[in-house]
Write a structure and sequence with these properties.
Layout (H helix, E strand, L loop, with lengths): L1 H51 L6 H4 L2 H7 L15 E6 L4 H4 L2 H10 L3 E6 L9 H15 L6 E3 L15 H15 L3 E4 L9 H15 L9 E4 L5
Helix pairs in contact: 7-8
Length: 233
């Protein structure tokens, strides 16, 4: 009888041991999966942080000419022939965009191609009631960048106010761009990327307007370049 009880106790002990061993293996496997998932999550977070890190760069660096010169890597950019870039139009939303986002490109085109550069600015930049001051600054900036005063077109359209909370109509912008391109016999257009570089709604509206003209073949035929600046941080 005692032997039988001892044998039963031993069997029960073995059963409990196997059960705990089975549970431990399952826990171990679950922990391993959690570890790998956490690792993947960390890498994804680091990737997103890298993509969004421009938001944490001080404004004086984020929009500085030399910062964007490095960001868009103009030193590695192979420009098209001068014949296809003889008359270049830059399209911006507000005064100061030409310096903050396009300064290196304007300088490079002027230095490397000697093109006739035009600027189409679609608003006076009066969001903070400094429209007159920003207009004056635009003219001064264009002198430094090498854009003649007669090549500057500054719009003051009630439908395109400098306000990130007001939607700019793509068709309105497209009509202005199309008329400007035709009247100036423009060969190349340079404007914002899809994100507007700084994600300003007025900037992205300009991109979609210009892109719509290209997609609908409403820009002049011939050797035409449509160049969108993109961030490569």
């Amino acid at each position: 009888m005692i032997y039988t009880e001892l044998l039963d106790s031993f069997h029960n002990l073995c059963s409990y041991h196997l059960f705990y061993l089975f549970v431990w293996k399952k826990i171990n496997s679950a922990l391993e999966h959690i570890f790998y998932l956490a690792l993947v999550y960390i890498f994804v977070c680091l990737g997103v942080y890298k993509l969004m890190s421009i938001r944490h760069i001080p404004l004086n660096r984020r929009f500085g000419i030399f910062y964007f010169l490095k960001a868009i890597r103009l030193e590695y950019f192979k420009w098209p022939s001068k014949e296809s870039m003889d008359r270049v139009l830059f399209i911006t939303s507000h005064p100061d965009d030409e310096c903050m986002f396009f300064g290196p490109v304007i300088h490079s085109i002027a230095q490397n191609l000697g093109s006739q550069i035009y600027l189409l600015c679609l608003s006076h930049g009066n969001y903070e009631k400094h429209g007159c001051k920003r207009r004056s600054e635009l003219w001064e900036a264009c002198k430094v960048l090498g854009i003649p005063e007669e090549n500057i077109t500054l719009f003051n359209c009630s439908q395109l106010p400098d306000d990130p909370n007001i939607e700019w109509k793509v068709q309105t912008i497209a009509n202005i761009i199309s008329n400007t391109v035709d009247s100036l016999d423009i060969q190349a257009v340079i404007t914002f990327d899809r994100e507007g570089v700084s994600q300003h709604p007025n900037h992205t509206a300009v991109y979609y307007a210009t892109a719509s003209l290209c997609l609908n073949s409403l820009l002049p035929k011939g050797e035409y370049l449509f160049l969108l600046l993109t961030q490569q941080i």
